[in-house]
Specification:
It contains 8 helices and 47 strands. By secondary structure, it is mainly beta. Among the domains are: 141 residues, no CATH class; 123 residues, no CATH class; 114 residues; 78 residues. Helix 3 runs antiparallel to helix 6. It is elongated.
Length: 722
């Protein structure tokens, strides 16, 4: 909500108070302006010419179901007859004053003698469109907010021959990725044996080759970002080939964060195994299989699947992580018929065959024999490690290199002829590629992405994060993009709203994700394709139940939807309203069966995992509150964490399983012109004879979905959220 000064607020409370607007139209270097209003007005040294014949409404809206917002905009018609301004027509000023793409500012005022153009009275600002149209009687201007000015193509950093003269030619002009979140070591699979570390990472993100061979040190250089990342580990440096990530020997790697370096021909690929005992090869060191032989032998079958032609293989090892064991009287302990024991101590690495003739698609056994007593060994995890010199496939083929947000709807999956008024509709919220086919040389790494800048603690700001922390909170990923990529500052960002949404302890995002802590909401992604900044921010908003918009004071704000615990920004007196209609949101907006795709593999360029919580039982039923149908939605998410993905799916289901009540009304007074989209309102003095679909208006909270302001009032649509 805007913060009107007390003098203006008090004046607007009085029914008889005259309310009006004054508009500043800046020109040339924006050091000067022409002021206009509905009649001649003087405010100190400022003159506002009374040439406004009509004010178009100052309009702004949000899409409740897609978490997008419109541009704030308005039109104004000026009198353009002879001798109306500075001895001529307004259109005559265009010969010496260029208003196109210059600033405008709009202020709410009353007849009381107060300064017109204070920051507390501004209700709109932005850019004057250059699309003027005029005749001998009038001229029309279109006024837009700053969205177009701030929008950029991201990533802003590209591989240039000037900065990277030895980069592959195919990489010139291509984007240097941006990495956010935690791609580093898994923390939920028990204590990982160091032999297995490179195979137990949350994910890997791309680094574009920027130097094919440095003439000084002989390394190939690659950049996963241009910012210094929180964690970048030369132990975790990979090439990708046909579904497998192969790790470079750490003796042949180096880094100067965020730049990675590698050379040499020693690489390792880790191949998962299959077994009859799931715990033997389940990828979890906290579970195990105990193999025990008593006066005999016992075996567990294992197998290795087929793998691509990686290169020239020098060795193949089965690596094992053991728990407890007693092999004092054992006669034999073997893996694939190769001895796995020296005296009574198992080896943690067992070489089973060497050379390039190894046949990976084969079966074998873990075999234990004891003819004299009892022997046992507990195995927590096992897999195959291949050492080889690769045929280095670095090129990633992209069908297209530019990405944009896409909403696909009205996709019919099927319907019953007897119920053809209700189609089974799936909405897929995802990204789509367009234009610029490309091949790019990449390698891959694991670590933690961008860190908070000094802005997170500037001016005594306290939201629970420090400059040493990496950013995985989606609210502050958005703020980071605004600051680090769009070059916005605190004068252009409403810090309070970002604090309210993203604070690590109390942020609204905790509420909508039903988490105990905001730190449990974990986003992680690498942006390696070109995308418009607005599209990227909207993509994150869809996944974090937030709306980002430019406020009437010219600053970017964020509003995060809450699931409960609302508080009102303002209470609207029903006696000030002209009720136009009560309705419900369309059935097409209902979603009770949600699938979230997550865990993106950047080598394959696809999502590996999905969650689909149980559909809401009430809304799929045939009761008065049901729709007798599963209404589906699918979304791709910038998430690696299964818990966050599940919470996202559950929140979408719980929020969107019902049609929402919408109240459309006019306010005949400007006292509510400090409201903005995203504000939460209550109603007082509601007419008890007017029911909300048969129910009385109680303490019901509504979010302002759209508002159209005029000098003496507004039209508002509000959607029920409680």
């Amino acid at each position: 909500m805007l913060a009107f000064d007390s003098s203006l607020s008090d004046a607007l409370e009085t029914h008889s108070t005259e309310s009006f607007w004054v508009l500043k139209l800046y020109y040339n270097d924006e050091a000067s302006f022409i002021g206009v209003s509905d009649q001649d007005r003087v405010d100190g040294s400022d003159t506002y010419y009374g040439i406004v014949s009509s004010w178009g409404g100052l309009s702004h809206s949000l899409d409740f179901f897609n978490f997008t917002t419109s541009l704030m905009n308005m039109s104004v018609k000026l009198i353009n007859t002879d001798n109306t301004i500075e001895g001529g027509r307004f259109s005559d000023l265009l010969s010496t004053n260029n208003f196109a793409n210059r600033k405008w500012e709009l202020f709410q005022n009353t007849g009381r003698a107060d300064t017109y153009d204070t920051a507390e009275r501004m209700i709109g600002t932005g850019i004057i469109s250059g699309d003027f149209s005029y005749g001998v009687k009038s001229i029309s201007l279109k006024l837009l907010d700053y969205t177009s000015k701030y929008n950029k193509q991201l990533p802003t950093a590209t591989v240039t021959s000037a900065t990277y003269p030895n980069a592959p030619e195919k990489n010139i002009g291509k984007p240097i990725p941006m990495a956010y979140g935690d791609f580093y070591e898994k923390t939920d699979v028990g204590t990982i044996d160091t032999l297995f570390d490179p195979a137990f990472l949350k994910s890997r993100f791309p680094a574009i080759i920027t130097n094919t061979m440095n003439e000084t040190d002989g390394y190939v250089y690659a950049n996963p970002d241009t910012d210094t990342l929180h964690t970048l580990d030369n132990e975790y440096f990979f090439i990708y080939n046909d579904g497998h990530y192969s790790k470079c020997s750490s003796t042949n790697t180096a880094l100067s964060n965020p730049q990675l370096k590698y050379k040499g021909t020693t690489w390792y690929t880790y191949i998962p195994m299959n077994s009859d005992s799931a715990n033997l090869t389940d990828g979890n060191f906290g579970t195990s299989t105990n193999i025990e032989a008593t006066l005999g032998n016992v075996s567990e079958e294992i197998s290795i699947g087929e793998v691509p032609n990686l290169g020239v293989v020098s060795s193949v090892d089965v690596i094992l992580d053991y728990g407890s064991y007693d092999l004092t009287t054992a006669d034999g302990f073997t893996i694939f018929n190769v001895g796995a024991v020296v005296s009574s101590t198992p080896q943690t690495s067992v070489q089973i065959q060497s050379g390039d003739g190894w046949d990976f698609a084969q079966k074998g056994v873990v075999f234990l024999e004891d003819g004299a007593g009892v022997s046992n060994v507990t195995i927590n995890e096992m897999m195959v490690r291949v050492t080889f010199a690769p045929s280095k496939t670095l090129t990633k083929q992209y069908s297209f290199l530019h990405e944009s947000s896409e909403l696909t709807q009205n996709v019919r999956e099927g319907f019953d002829d007897d119920r053809d008024n209700l189609e089974n509709i799936i909405i897929r919220t995802q990204t789509a590629d367009s234009t610029f086919p490309a091949e790019i040389d990449y390698v891959y790494c694991s670590g933690k992405g961008r860190k908070y800048g000094s802005w997170i603690t500037a001016s005594s700001r306290s939201v629970g994060y420090a400059t040493t922390d990496f950013i995985e909170n989606p609210v502050f990923i958005i703020e980071s993009l605004m600051r680090d990529e769009l070059s916005l500052t605190s004068s252009e960002i409403d810090i309070t709203s970002f604090n309210t949404s993203g604070n690590s302890s109390t942020g609204d995002i905790k509420n909508i994700f039903s988490e105990d802590n905001v730190t449990d909401v974990k986003f992680a992604f690498s942006q390696s394709k070109f995308i418009n900044s607005k599209d990227l921010i909207n993509r994150i908003c869809k996944q974090s139940f937030s709306w980002v918009f430019i406020s009437g004071d010219g600053k970017y704000k964020i509003k995060t939807l809450e699931a409960s615990g609302w508080s009102a920004n303002k209470t609207i007196d029903f006696n000030d309203c002209n009720l136009k209609s009560i309705s419900r949101s369309s059935l097409g907006g209902v979603r009770n069966d949600i699938t979230i795709n997550y865990n993106k593999d950047y080598g394959q360029d696809q999502f590996l995992s999905s969650v689909n919580p149980t559909a809401d039982a009430t809304s799929v039923a045939d009761s008065v509150n049901g729709y007798n149908q599963n209404l589906k939605m699918k979304m791709d998410a910038d998430i690696l964490d299964s818990t966050t993905a599940t919470k996202l799916a559950e929140a979408y289901r719980d929020i969107f399983k019902d049609r929402k009540v919408i109240i459309d009304f006019d306010c005949g007074r400007a006292k509510y012109n400090d409201l903005e989209i995203g504000d939460i309102i209550l109603f007082s003095n509601w007419d008890s004879d007017i029911k909300i679909y048969g129910a009385s208006m109680g303490t019901d909270y509504y979010i302002v979905q759209s508002i159209n302001k005029k000098p003496n009032g507004s039209s508002i649509k509000a959607i029920k959220v409680s």
